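Could you please consider the sequence and fold following this short note?
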Amino acid sequence: MKLPKLPSWAGILLSLIATVLPLSAAEPAAKPLKALLVIGGCCHDYAVQKDLLKAGIEQRTNIEVDVCYSPDKSTKATFTCYERDNWADGYDVIIHDECSADVKDPVVVNRILAPHRKGLPGVNLHCAMHSYRVSPDFKKPLADGAEGAMWFDYLGLQSSGHGPQKPIDVTYVDASNPITRGLENWTTINEELYNNIRVHDSAKPL
């Protein structure tokens, strides 16, 4: 079967998943890892992307991907999987690919963050970095621990937007890291370069 073509960042995604998980997906006899892909919201074709990501990850790794998809195309998209306090039970990693910038209720955001605060790994794609802007001052540097910074504290950086779509030169500054080992510097097609208002001390640029 021909494997589906994945977005250009998918190779890095697969490296991230393999690195943050405690088990090796390369062993055929190993029990499959469980991932939850939370996807939907504004600005992108998530209806197509959810199928590409699920198929691409499952065909290339020993990971089973469940999908929590919202067809809501606004910046207020919500997800049924987040309605339970124990929403992440049974998963080894969460892939956040939602675009919900205007979901601002701290109760909701704290519920989403709870399993990550307990150590559950998460991988955030694209607009998931711009989601859950609890503070109206998200364009200004926010202090660690401030209520409005809760999503940024989890991410390890604060980003508020991006510029026009242009080719981006990608340069790896730590080529020995397991996530980037074997990857070469490259230039994207037209992509959105996210700004970094503040990189937290907990983050490690790669």
Summary: The chain has a mean pLDDT of 90. Helices lie at 10-20, 46-60, 106-117, 150-155.
